[in-house]
Design brief:
Elements (H helix, E strand, L loop, with lengths): L32 H22 L5 H23 L7 H25 L5 H8 L2 H12 L7 H18 L10 H24 L7 H23 L8 H29 L1 H4 L6 H13 L6 H17 L5
Helix pairs in contact: 1-4, 1-9, 1-11, 2-3, 2-8, 2-9, 3-7, 3-8, 4-7, 4-11, 5-7, 5-12, 6-12
Length: 319
């Protein structure tokens, strides 16, 4: 639910977009990139609210299955219009299955389960820790990433922000440990998936759109297998939760991927990935204003510290 969409020195959370060959220069879209950037921030920021609403009527696995099904449908239509070819290599499909698990099926399900017991505001803030996890993992898994004082300081600052959000000085009182742990594990899953993607799919001949659509399809298949084993058929389909799940998939997964795909092509991954830092702000605002969730002072303060630390881990010295 966050987002850089091209391989970089430090992997970042991204729900779907995978590296592919560079597309040919295209005509500049009629809608200014800043407006599309704002729309993407709003869509992903409100995703945590939609998850919360969806789990009011459906099991977490059902919410995730509906999300992936709707998102895959959107990309399938776009791929059909553009006549995109699916990957042909069995090896590529195997790697995409692993990517789908770590970038879609696992984190989407963990966030849905987490929001059964924690506010959507906290889930959105936990999502902002993905750059911190990514930087820490890349230092171990990617030999080209070397620690610098600035990046280590960013990790330390981000960790301090997490402790602030969780109210460590109060002994984590009033905190649902299992829900928070699942949200943090979901955030960790994104960079794990991106490291895998960098090592296995960076040289693929298929287009980014084809890889992304195929990945979402495989994630849908994974959830279609798992969901019947752990859930029962819903007794009904309430309008608001159903619309929330459909919007979560069609907008928060399908359309959002297309917006991010276009932003990366137009303004580059460095600018496009800045959407990551707006998501917790919007998620917190939506949770408080729409769902009436309570917000103590340490939550926004800790979130700002987390974002500052994440920004430091992503900064580079000018040559």
């Amino acid at each position: 639910m966050s987002a850089p969409t091209a391989p970089r020195a430090t992997p970042e959370p991204a729900p779907a977009v995978l590296p592919g060959p560079s597309p040919a220069p295209a005509r500049r879209p009629a809608l200014d990139w800043r407006l599309r950037f704002a729309a993407l921030s709003l869509i992903w920021g409100f995703s945590f609210l939609l998850i919360k609403v969806g789990t009011d009527a459906y099991a977490p696995f059902q919410v995730t299955l509906g999300r992936l099904l709707s998102g895959t449908a959107v990309l399938a239509v776009v791929m059909a219009v553009k006549r995109e070819r699916l990957p042909r290599s069995a090896r590529t499909w195997g790697h995409l299955a692993v990517a789908a698990f770590f970038l879609n099926a696992l984190p989407f399900s963990l966030f849905a389960y987490a929001e059964l017991s924690i506010p959507s505001t906290l889930a959105g803030i936990c999502n902002a820790t993905s750059p911190l996890w990514g930087m820490a993992l890349s230092l171990v898994a990617l030999s080209e990433d070397r620690p610098t004082r600035r990046r280590v300081a960013g990790l330390g600052l981000g960790f301090l922000g997490v402790l602030t959000v969780l109210g460590a000085w109060q002994g984590f009182s009033g905190l649902d440990f299992s829900g928070t742990a699942m949200a943090l594990l979901a955030s960790l899953s994104y960079p794990v998936g991106w490291i895998y993607v960098r090592r296995t799919l960076a040289g693929s001949d298929a287009s980014t759109l084809a890889l992304t659509g195929s990945q979402l399809f495989l994630g849908t298949v994974q959830l279609a297998v798992v969901t019947p084993l752990f859930t029962t058929v819903p007794g009904g389909f309430p309008v608001v939760p159903t619309l929330a799940v459909v919007a979560l998939g069609a907008l928060g997964t399908g359309l959002a991927v297309l917006l991010q795909y276009g932003l990366v092509n137009e303004v580059g991954p460095t600018t496009a990935q800045m959407v990551t830092y707006f998501i917790p702000v919007i998620a917190t605002t939506a949770g408080v204003a729409v769902l009436g969730e309570r917000l103590s002072w340490n939550t926004p303060v800790g979130a700002l510290i987390v974002l500052a630390g994440a920004a430091l881990t992503q900064s580079r010295r000018r040559a």
